[in-house]
Amino acid sequence: MMKAEHNDRKNQPKLTINTGLNPYISISAFAEFTNYMHELKTNYFIVNKIVPTNAFIANLTRGNYNLVILTQVKHCPANIVSVPLCVLTGPGPEF
Questions:
Q1: pLDDT tens for residues 53-83?
Q2: CATH value at residue 61
Q3: How many domains does the chain fold into?
Q4: Is the dihedral of CA 20, 22, 27, 32 positive or negative?
Q5: All residues at 6 or more sequence positions from 60 whose CB lies less than 8 Å from its CB, including other chains
Q6: Is 6 or 53 the better-scoring residue by pLDDT?
Q7: pTM for the predicted model, two decimal places
Q8: Largest CA distance in the chain
């Protein structure tokens, strides 16, 4: 488990984000996500937890995670927003 740490008491995190990731995303893309959040100076406390792909719906429903980043999920229920994660290495389409 990887945690963002804050030592300055005056600069306490505003919000904890529990992120559920599969091992592949944890190794390949999560560092970019944390760097991006750090550049935005969001002051969030980000907790990374590995989540089994087959149990992510139950974990989201129970409130164990605020954000789940996984590889493609084919059957996502209508009450959960699922969007493809795009990584652009150069000029690309505007979203």
A1: 777 777 777 888 888 777 766 666 666 666 6
A2: 3.40.190.10
A3: 1
A4: negative
A5: 20, 68, 80
A6: 53
A7: 0.57
A8: 44
